[in-house]
Amino acid sequence: MENIEERYKFFTEFILKRVFRVFFFFSFFFFALVFLSNFFFLERVSACTHPCRELSHLNNICTGPGQCRNSSPCSCNSAEFCYQGWLCCDKGPCGSCTPSCPTNYTTTNTGCSSTTASCTRRNCAGDNCGTNTITCRLVTHRVRYNANGGSCPGDAHICHNSGNSAPNCTRPGYNRTGYTITSGSCSGTFTSSTGVCSRIREPITIRANWQLACTTGSWTNTSCGGGGCAANMMQQTRTVSPAGCATTSRCVSNSSCDQFTVSYVRSPAAGGTLNPDSRTVYRGGTSTGPSVTTNWGYEFSGFWKASDTCGNLNSGTGTVSNVTCPLSVYAIWRDCGSCQNCNPYSSPGCPTNYVSNNTGCATTQISCPRFNGCGQL
After folding, report:
1. How far apart are CA 80 and CA 90, in angstroms?
2. Element of type H or E holding 29
3. What is the pLDDT of residues 197-240, one digit of tens each?
4. Which of 346, 353, 278 is nearest to 318 (CA)?
5. Does the global pTM surpass 0.70?
6. How many angstroms separate the first and last alpha carbons of the chain?
7. Residues 6+ positions from 309 with CB-CB distance below 8 Å
């Protein structure tokens, strides 16, 4: 009986000791778990500074210097926020932020047009607590001018999307033939004659182009109607160097190229023929007289023109010099009249040993020439 009691007592004490140890172990473990959990939580919260660091076990929420306090359920003041329904955590100070300028803008004062950029400042609770604002200005792009042996203005710095001014490059002894973009590109319209790009969005280089300066001589009159000019236009020519740099021939109005007609008129028309019957000459020129053919029964007397007309007439040849107006020149013929009778017995008369009487002897004939008034047979 004693053995049973002793065994029961031993067994009871053994069980109680085991249960107590297990209880103690779990109680200690639970207490340590709660203590350490709050310790590490508070340690992490207290270590958090603005801007908030990401703490995965706090769902990205952290606090500032005030840390957190137990308040289950949450009964937080305005400077705190509730976390998981049982902690009131300090929102912390308002954090800072850095705004970023939009594309093609910079914080440097370029002198170009401006805009503003801002960002939102937040505390540890993620609340909006203010903004930071900066002024941004359009960036500039460098425009280089390649003088190509001449001289140009210095490099230009052009605001984005703006155009440059004409560079007006020069080179003694050369003529500028235009400009060419040798690097980069024009985003607008490039005018090669002035070197202006209407819209610049990147750095570009513009080169001046040259040609030897053109040297020209004086214009010299050559001839009326020459070189393809109209008959009443004067052709002028000049020398140029280098060849092809300027025109060498031109047509100009000139009074010396005025043309006048000299008409040759038969008087009377039956007196003969003229070849040609007219000539056209330039102002101050000479009209050579025509060739004359006289018909029988007429005698050519020469040429005549009215005294109040221009030019100097050679009445024997019909040539008119210094013609300055249209005029008519007349070819004059004299009518020689009808043929006159003659008496062969008186002139030339019968030959020797012949008589005009009928002697019944052998005969011969004699004749005399008949002439008109001009002595024509």
Report:
1. 4
2. helix 2-47
3. 999 999 999 999 998 888 889 999 998 889 899 988 999 999 98
4. 278
5. no
6. 214
7. 325, 327, 328
- CB of 251 within 8 A of CB of 235? yes
Please give the full DSSP string across 191-259, using - where no structure is assigned: ETTTTEES-B-S-EEEEEEEEEPPEE---EEEEETGGG--TTEEEEE--EESTTSS--EEEEE-GGG-E
Q: What is the DSSP letter of 47?
A: H
Q: Work out whether strand 140-146 and strand 285-287 pair parallel, antiparallel, or are unpaired.
A: unpaired
**pLDDT at residue 52 greater than cutoff 70:** no
Q: What is the CA radius of gyration of the chain?
A: 65
Nearest to 83 by CA among 109, 115, 104, 55: 55
Average per-residue pLDDT in the chain? 82
Report phi then psi at 24, rounded to 5: -60, -40
Task: Convert the pLDDT of each residue in 262-313 to its tens digit.
Answer: 999 999 999 999 999 999 999 989 999 999 999 988 999 999 999 888 999 9
Please report, as a single letter, which amino acid is at residue 126: G
Q: Are strands 215-216 and 240-241 parallel, antiparallel or unpaired?
A: antiparallel
Contact at 8 Å (CB) between 300 and 362? no
Flag whether pLDDT at 147 surpasses 80.
yes
Q: Closest by alpha carbon to 62, among 132, 139, 14, 123?
A: 123
Q: Vertex 35, ends 34 and 36: CA angle to 5°?
A: 95
Q: Token digits for 355?
A: 């008589």
State how far Cα 11 lies from the chain centre: 115
Half-sphere exposure of 135 (CA within 13 A, CB side): 8
Q: Please give the structure tokens belonging to residue 277.
A: 């019957």
Separation between Cα atoms, residue 213 and residue 249, nearest integer Å: 19
C-alpha to C-alpha distances, 272 to 298, 339, 371, nearest whole angstrom: 8, 19, 20
Question: Rounded to the nearest 10 degrees, how much is the dihedral formed by the CA atoms of 313, 319, 321, 324?
Answer: 80
Question: What element of type H or E holds 189?
Answer: none
Residue 33 DSSP symbol:
H
Closest CA to 151 of 68, 210, 97, 104: 210
Contact 155, 190 (CB under 8 A): no
